[in-house]
Amino acid sequence: MSQEAQTPQQTNPSKVVVITSGKGGVGKTTTSANVAAGIAMLGHKTVAIDFDVGLRNLDLVLGCERRVVYDFVNVLRGEAKLGVALVRDRRIENLYVLPASQTRDKDALDPEGVGRVIADLKEMGFEYIICDSPAGIEKGAQMAMYFADEAIVVANPEVSSVRDSDRVLGLLAAKTSRAEVGGAPIKTHLLLTRYSPAMVKRGEMLSVGDVLELLGIPLLGVIPESSVVLQSSNKGTPAILDDLTDVAQAYLDVVYRFLGEERQHRFIEEEKRGFLRRIFG
Amino acid sequence: MAFLSYFRRTTKTASLAKDRLSVIVARERATTRGGPDYLPQLQQELLAVLAKYENIDLQHVSVNLDKSGSFEVLELNIVLQDPGKPVTMAPQKIMS
Known about the structure:
Strand order of the largest sheet of chain B: 1-2
Helix content of chain B: 40-55%
Number of helices of chain A: 13
Radius of gyration of chain A: 18 Å
Number of strands of chain B: 2
Structural class of chain B: alpha+beta
Structural class of chain A: alpha/beta
Number of strands of chain A: 8
Oligomer: heterodimer
């Protein structure tokens, strides 16, 4: 399926990025899909790996669920070749998905096997390896973060999510390959999702400033609360592909910032809607 | 009577959330982050050593890791009992 995935690119060293949160339902898979799609759209060869063994969903959000034949665990067990298990996106060049197994349990993941697959993906010339972590702080989540160079911690402006994010930051600092070998620590980024500037203004929701102060890591971006996210997953098309929406713009900013470009933060203040937008928007 | 609750709702819940979080996050960090995995064990072992020489109690020894500017402070706090009082706990018992 991925014959052209065989040319190694020495110029750009690959980066392993974990999308994690601790708490479930905050937008890890949505973020994985959009960030992977965005990076690929900008011309970088990207693979998104679903680490949620038993609860595969990244394929559904990316709209390639019907083309999944083999999965991550098949590759780990040597039942399928990596190049065959990778599902290539039909809309976005450079984007590939390695689906999670739907039938096995999370013990199917082991550090040696996962490390081997990541090394093989690097060998195949993938510049960005996006690891979509399962919720929780158990083995699956720890495997997803173990080989990471950078981490995007997804949080909602809500007490349980912020607390869990802090726990995950602790794990990133202690239970990863970089922490164990003693190299440079994992670079962490905060992505605040489901943000409602109007609620923040009324004092009903933690503000970006509050969350940043509590967690103490740099802000990668803010994704506004929007029905677009649900509609995108209904369709199986990452929101970032429809660049007219707030969510797409916000994710695009996130991708550019992640790739090193300076961009001003948006969607933090309540939008001043004009008369026409009020009626037709 | 719903209209009454409208007037009563004066506390901003966001600031309440922030206050609660800053307390719990700070407490959890002190016990779980930045390599203090060994703190509970350190406490146990220190206690065992100290118990050889002094009459002490688990409740009277605390080990804390605090951040002060760019460096971390390991704080060990031991409360010694009155010399006249009998031994409350044998060292072996403390270790268990």
